[in-house]
Amino acid sequence: MRTAAPDEHGTSTGAGTAPGVWVVWGTAVVVYLLGVTQRTSLGASGLDAAARFGIDPGTLALFVFLQISVYAAGQIPAGMLVDRFGSRRMLLVGGLLLGAGQALLALATVLPLALTARVLVGAGDAVAFSSALVLVARWFPARRVPVVTQVTTILGQLGQILSTLPLLLLLHAAGWTTAFGVAAAASVLSAVAAAVLVRNGPIGWRAPAPVPPREMLRQVAAVWRRPGTRLGFFGHLGTQFSMMTFSLLWGVPYLVSGQGLDPLVAGTLMTLLVVASVVVGPLVGMVTGRHPMRRSWILLGVIGLTAATWTAVLLVPAPAPTWLLVVLVVVLAVGGPASVVGFDIARTTNPGGNLAVAQGMVNIAGYSASVLVLTVMGGVLTAMGGFTEDAFRVAWLVQYPVWAFALVGIVVTRRKARRVDAARGVVPRPLREVVAGMRRA
After folding, report:
1. How many Å apart are CA 82 and CA 84, to the nearest integer?
2. What sections of the protein cross the membrane (predicted)?
3. Please, which residues have CB within 8 angstroms of residue 166's CB and are 6 or more apart in sequence?
């Protein structure tokens, strides 16, 4: 295995071709992929969960509210733990928490136990994601990190396919307990694999020296004060929440009850969402790597496109044309890769010793917005009589104020970030020169 020295961001610059890198990265991706499976499992089985526990849409939203609230609140603590103890240990912890949560959900027959299960899933998910991203930054050359980060998140999102088709089919064929028991066992096995196969860094990588708790808190404050962190935060917030709200909970009920689609057709559209992310993600990663000074334009463009597409869908009486729903799903899929641009901005504007905290801070944004939107939507649906076309049409309007908030945040923090860059002598090339260079390429 070739020795690699960290660059100025604490990123390995020569480990990309080391023999062990793919085993380490692949194992981390599996833990993360199964974390996404557990995270989105209620998105596909939401109607089954409502029937099993005898709950209304607002209470069903509480399941995901707790899970994602724990996930979002755990981002900074998880980042601090990963920076302190390393990805190997924390992948083990994350996988075991995910397995425990799904095992409890498999056996639960009363609401309090089911809610506790989702809390465990949220905590394990937070740790697994942060650990995987840090491994990418430490094992791959800096120039490859944007693309590998996109591929990591894309492969992780394949876990949604496992929850929307195989898990759903197993649920209907073998029952609730068997389906969620199998999901729990998969995460436990991935945790054991991580403990055996993952290493925190390549040969020659030096772990940051442990710091006292008070110093860690000071570093967290310093990370937030950096304009690049806040720019990544608002970018992640605006691009991710619509896709997450759709895939985590309300997508399948909306397509089935609000648009009148067959459940298998709805599941196919949810699978298309993941496939589209797989196609778009590497392209976004390549553009991000080649034009780092234009990353905010990716964020602004995706937010505008998503809002425009939802507007078109909501203006058309249900059932909307199938082609329009396909367009909606594809556009929502772009939001996932676009949100990863926020992580890249945080990575390049923070030192390596704060990498997990910075990326965790960015990750809070989209999931906090998702929690807010899906919870308010649950309240609107309940107030308007449940899963009806009119109720969904009003409920989806909750998204628009969040997009407006994100747009203002991006514009304001981008100006501050560019002033910091200018003080360091980094000035973006004029857009016409960038476009001309792309044409020549």
Report:
1. 5
2. 20-38, 58-78, 90-113, 119-140, 179-198, 233-252, 264-285, 297-316, 322-343, 364-388, 394-412
3. none
pLDDT at 55 over 90: no
What's CA 321's distance to the chain center, in Å?
Answer: 29
What is the CATH number for 331?
1.20.1250.20
For 243, the token pair is 């896709």
Q: Say how many C-beta atoms besides its own lie within 10 A of residue 212's C-beta.
A: 8
Answer whether 179's CB lies under 8 Å from 171's CB. Answer: yes
- Convert the pLDDT of each residue in 188-217 to its tens digit: 999 999 999 998 878 766 666 666 667 777
The domain total for the chain is 1
pLDDT tens for each residue of 118-170: 899 989 988 898 888 888 888 888 778 878 887 888 788 778 778 877 888 88
Cα–Cα dist 95/120, whole Å: 10
DSSP letter string, 123-180? HHHHHHHHHHHHHHHHHS-GGGHHHHHHHHHHHHHHHHHHHHTHHHHHHHHH-HHHHH
Of 402, 438, 434, give the one whose Cα is nearest residue 243: 402
Q: Residue 31: which domain range?
A: 21-202+213-425
What SS3 class is residue 365? helix
**Residue 12 falls inside a structural domain:** no
Overall average pLDDT of the 62-69 stretch: 77
Instruction: For residues 243 and 228, give the distance between their C-alpha atoms in angstroms, rounded to a whole number.
Output: 24
Inside any domain, residue 438 = no
Burial class (CB in 10 A: 0-12, 13-18, 19+), 281: buried
pLDDT band for position 11 (cuts 50, 70, 90)? very low
User: What pLDDT digit, counting tens, does each position of 338-390 carry?
Assistant: 998 888 888 877 776 677 778 888 888 988 898 889 889 988 998 888 888 89
The encoded tokens of residue 3 equal: 């020795």
Is residue 193 within 8 A of residue 27, CB to CB? The reply is yes
End-to-end CA distance of the chain: 35
Residue 10 lies in a domain: no
